[in-house]
Amino acid sequence: MDLIPDLPNHIALECLIRVPFDQFSRVASVCSDWKKEIKLPEFRRLRKTSCRSQKVIVMSQARVDPDRKKTGVIKRFANPVYRVTLLELDTGHWLELPPLPGFSNGLPMFCQLAAVGLNIVAMGGLDPVTWEVSNSVFVFDFVSGKWQRGADMPGVRRSFYGCASDRDRMVYVAGGHDGDKNALRSAIAYDVEKDEWIQLPDMANQRDECKGIFHDGKFHVIGGYRTEMQGRFEKSVQVFDVATSQWGEVQDDFLEASTCPRTCTVGSGKDFYTSHEGDVLALKRDKWQAVAKIPADVCKVAYMTTWQGKLLVIGCASYGEPHKAYVLDLESNKWKKMESLEKFSGHVQSGCYLEI
């Protein structure tokens, strides 16, 4: 059957791949053939090879009270209410996703976000009303335009764990702490397509408040601390090889300093990046080097990520101030400020990169 009557299918497909990601659900509702086409991996690959894919940052971001004080400072809610927001990097366009089913009071605090194919996964966190640890998993499908409940996270109810996806099918989770504040060594993986959890081998060390990064077929779990250390971060990293399903040896002194690793990210090559004392640091040839001074507007960094030779920093000048976004060109080391609406200037707790 023709995708579009009286048009060759290759021309019809050229039309479909130009549809913006936030219109996928409307296009998919037109007919079953269009819906099937959009869901195919080949459709996403064609969008990418044709330079039609869109680069998006997905964030857990606080709402902003629309009222202003006489001073002009933006009011913040006493108890922040978080929602999922999206920033399209090429256009600077912002939008907000529907709330999670059953969470009318906002996203679970400190929940983790991961991008997988045409889906966004939101998992865990603390109930914004009761502050109980949640093991819930929700999956947003851009084709349906809706959230659906996934299989709950198994085992102990963990918080502040490392999390990352392979962007294709799997989400990896490691470390964090249980309800008694005991740091964890355990690791699990979520198959989004099958809606199933898989138990992984334990890490060598406990890692609370660690950072998860997936790169080059491997899940890196960076930093964190053991139960008895309570907030005194380590500088080590341990890497899980997906192909062999084994953890490598612990690499000590991976980080430049014993600090929270939440801003760690990795570039398209082998270089890792992080923020430290007002600088962007890059790990080049096993040595951390300062490559740029972070603009004063975002010196309190909330979130950082890279894509295609660029680095995004979202932060504020001082705690409680509006959050802004700057992009660093990693070739020229020059910054460019991204414009945003006031309602998208709230604090960012977590985020992930998505090319769709």
From TrEMBL:
CDD domains: F-box_AtAFR-like (cd22152). This is F-box/kelch-repeat protein. GO terms for biological process: negative regulation of cytokinin-activated signaling pathway; regulation of phenylpropanoid metabolic process. InterPro entries: F-box-like_dom_sf, Kelch-typ_b-propeller, Kelch_1, KMD1-4. PANTHER family: OS02G0208700 PROTEIN. The lineage of its organism: Eukaryota, Viridiplantae, Streptophyta, Embryophyta, Tracheophyta.
